[in-house]
Amino acid sequence: MLLATNELVVLTQDGRVSARRRLGADALDVWAVQRRMALGPDGLLHVLLGRDVRSRPDRVAVVDPISLRQVKSYELDHETTYRVLTPGPRTGQIRLLGNAGGDVVMALLGPKGVAHREVVRTDRDNDLRVFDAVLTGDEKRLFVGYHGADSTGADVVRLSPAGRQTCRAAPGVGCLPDVHGGMKVVGDLLYTATGSATRVDERNPDGRIRRRLNPRSGNNHLMAITADGHHLYALGSCGYAGGLTRVTLSTGETTELSSRPENEICGEQLTLNRSGNALAVLSLPRPVPQTGRTSGSAVLFVDPKTGRVTGRGTLDADPLDVVPLD
């Protein structure tokens, strides 16, 4: 797990800390809980660190996921504030998404650092701040979601030929205007939050809506979702109504696993582990993470069948991302 202090922490499912290591100074640009870590094809953990208080350029650290020993580090370009790190489902190749002025930038990470960098969209008049990015299973399309002061939606970038955008969009809006929040690729399908507590879209690989699911997430501005081949999970923010619901994908039926105040499951991100028997919930007392040492944040380990909290790790800084190791 990555903290806003640019520290990595390894937690067991009962909430115990088994390893901790600082990789940089406290992060300066941590406006959202985002996709900042991924296991590469070599089994090493790639970590996009937050830009630190010394205003150094962004950096990707490559570490052993168990011991947290740093193996190497890549310094990125000065012009871009990178916000999201996303791996290719097929190759594991790492792509970075961020902003440089009015440009939305995509960079491909190679053995010696940034191997390729290109602008995938320009909008000088609106804050197209990158919020999330995911690749389709064949790695031919990249979905880039926005959440800025005056922007929303997601763009579809075709990577073959590289970087050619496949749809037109109005200023300040992605060409898939209903996307607002997290995205998740499962097989050939894409699941996208809309900000609505009653709607998550299931989409085809080209971005077209296949069906609409209702997670029945109460009075939430719903942005945190995850899914496997059988279920979709929706998490309410602690700044709203909170709670956790599960949608059975074969039937569309929704089950409430947790509601507040009976069960205090809430947060900004949830991740299912590889075996599918545990959800990790990044629980922050506020929707926007803070820098430096803070109180009130935790990682909750939740049984996805029952909604029971099986472990809790209290944190002394806000979490930015989590990657399951089992």
Mind explaining what this structure looks like?
The protein is mostly beta strands. A 4-stranded antiparallel beta sheet has the order 4-5-6-7, with no helix packed on it. It has a 4-stranded antiparallel beta sheet with strand order 8-9-10-11, with no helix packed on it. The chain is built from no helices and 28 strands. It has a single domain (2-321), classed as 7 Propeller (Methylamine Dehydrogenase, Chain H), CATH 2.130.10.10. The protein has strands at residues 2-3, 7-11, 17-22, 37-39, 45-48, 59-63, 70-75, 81-87, 94-100, 103-110, 113-122, 130-135, 141-146, 154-158, 164-165, 183-186, 189-193, 200-203, 209-213, 224-227, 231-235, 244-248, 254-258, 269-272, 279-283, 298-302, 309-314, 319-321.
Radius of gyration: 18 Å
- Report the biggest beta sheet as strand number plus sense, adding barrel if it closes: 4 strands, antiparallel
CATH fold group: Methylamine Dehydrogenase, Chain H
Low-confidence stretches: none
Secondary-structure-based class equals mainly beta
Number of domains: 1
Number of helices: 0
Name given to the CATH architecture: 7 Propeller
Total E-strand runs: 28
CATH superfamily membership:
YVTN repeat-like/Quinoprotein amine dehydrogenase
In the CATH scheme, the class would be Mainly Beta
**SSE topology string:** EEEEEEEEEEEEEEEEEEEEEEEEEEEE
InterPro entries: Quino_amine_DH_bsu
